[in-house]
Amino acid sequence: MALPRILVLVLAGGAGGRLELLTEQRAKPAVPFAGVYRLIDFPLSNCQNSQISDVWVSIQFHPTSLHDHLSNGRPWDLDRTAGGLLTLPPYKGTERGGWNTGTADSLWRHAELIRAFDADALVVVSADAVYKLDYREVAEAHLGSGAEVTMVTTEVAPDDASRYGIVEVADGGRVSGYAYKPDEPATTTATNEVFVFSPTPTLDRLEALNADVGEEGLEDLGSHLLPAQTADGLARAFPLDGYWRDVGTVPAYWEAHREFIAEEPPLDLDAPRWPVHTRGGRHSAARVLSEARVEDSLISGGTRVGGDVRGSVLSPGVVVEAGATVVDSVLLPGVRVRAGATVTRSVLDDGVDVGRGASVGGDGEITLVGRAARVADGSELAAGARFPEPER
Known about the structure:
six-stranded parallel sheet, 19% helix, UDP N-Acetylglucosamine Acyltransferase, domain 1
């Protein structure tokens, strides 16, 4: 019996404004994570480990930051003569050309390509979460259910539920209620932005909805499409029992790194049966000098540590000079913390230079320093600061 034909569409075109300075010059899926990875590595590795080789990536904001990392799909065995990785940028020339205005709008704009591919199942995923999931298992469960959409779900904290699409699940896994980012969530069961659609009926429904919604457009999947499928009794839930973390905000991004420096991290990123792959770098081994002190931290290749590093993540090329202190922080590639400087509870973007004796962050809210910023010698950035300050 032939395996079902599965197409994965990675929606990687969002502006990522909730990550503030981290997405001013890069696409959200290109944001580094856990030292050597990028957020898009997680869905692409899930595709590889699920043995799915037809993967399309819809891009829009800062596309070069993604193109450079994707490397034609080679790190995930997607650089193939037939199939493999295909990037879908915005385009002009047809009635469906133009700027995507939401995830459902993006799906509608690529509908003709999807129909021509003729998949049995269409897996649509975002690229701003950290998790492992067998997409093929979900797709096969969907194909046997009679549903038009299967929503992968996870449990979230009650005070965080209003950020997500919230579902109510009846006996047998049928989704009996769906609300997109509700003010008063009925449950704490949230969709985790992985959906399996039956392509033809879903695209037909999108066409009908597009004719009805008028100027407001199709917007996101949760705005019109998923509520309509739920109302018709054609939505099913597939619970994800393992780890899942949305890192689309600065506090969530920082908290996720805290989880991965624990003695037992929530995911083994090097697990032989389900490794997370990324574009390989050209970095030498990390160098830890005799005067250094390193505790409970992730230290990437190409780093040089001469100071005190505790509870932190150092990406490739980071330098922490002798006499400097880095505590509970995430330092992205090429950051330099000079002698006598202190960095606490902060996220420092690529190439940030913290001057001698400077102080960044402290107890309280997470401090965020943007790409290539120079923190002057002896200066102080208080907890919760944004440097440079975002334009208003």
